[in-house]
Amino acid sequence: MSKTIKILGTGCPKCQSLTGVVKDVVSENNIDATIEKVEDIMEIMKYNVMTTPALVIDDVITIKGRVPSKDEVLALLN
Predict the structure, then answer these.
(1) Active-site residue numbers?
(2) pLDDT at 5 over 90
């Protein structure tokens, strides 16, 4: 079953780092996932997230305000 991954962030360096980490993990592990960047502040507010970047997997906020390691992202996706 495909996972839906959303990266909430306005395009800051941390947001870009998080996007890179997630894309690497998905491609390196052949994970079936859709990655969507959410940069619209109104959309981000709907998730009640005050600190970006945030990682949302299947509509569950898993990480906020920091860039996780590849291992951490992989564990969240498995």
Answers:
(1) 12, 15
(2) yes
